[in-house]
Amino acid sequence: MTRTLTAALSITSALALTTSALASAGHPGGGVTAFGHPGDVKKISRTVRIEATEIKYNLTDLTFKVGETVKFVFVNKGEQDHELSLGDSATQLMHRKMMQDMAAMPGMDMSKMPGHEGMDDTMLMTKPGETRELVWQFTKAGTFEFACNYPGHAEVGMTGKIVVR
Ligand SMILES: [Cu+2]
Q1: Structure pTM?
Q2: Engineered SS bond to 60: which of 107, 110, 159, 160, CB 3.0-4.6 Å?
């Protein structure tokens, strides 16, 4: 078996483990989390456009009302892959660690990294020049985060605060 194939198989099992860990942590495949759930496109009350460049977002503070349904339009204006991930700080840390572990695997090419099963509802991964959207309804008051969890990105400030009240 080639080294690349071995690495790919390890990633698959790592993702499977992470997905089940997330499910037991209250992040089931249905996309319902402690802070909201995928929104109904007919109920969008606000559209937020977020742009990514190296290595930052164009905005870092967002405030929403409880119950608000928001369309996020995420535009990668940079020259590398970036993501927009929504979550509480624990989820973001877990996700960041997973991406670091994957990047550390021998022969791993992050640009060919697969999406994360079961996390698509809260996360948009983009290539340079790509625009992707997600619709989310915030159902709980609190302070949450958006972040790019590609290794080294959140660490240099590619994060933002979401306040729901
Ligand atoms: Cu990034």
Answers
A1: 0.77
A2: 160
Distance in Å, CA 153 to ligand 1 centroid: 5
Topology adopted by domain 3-164: Immunoglobulin-like (2.60.40)
Which is nearest to 158 in space by CA: 48, 54, 49, 74? 54
Cα 92 to averaged position of ligand 1 atoms, centre (Å) = 13
pLDDT, tens digit, for every residue of 7-52? 444 444 444 444 444 443 444 444 556 789 999 999 999 999 999 9
| Ligand 1 centroid – CA 42 distance (Å) | 30
* Residue 55 CA to ligand 1 centre (angstroms): 6
Contact 114, 11 (CB under 8 A): yes
Cα(83) to ligand 1 centroid in Å equals: 6
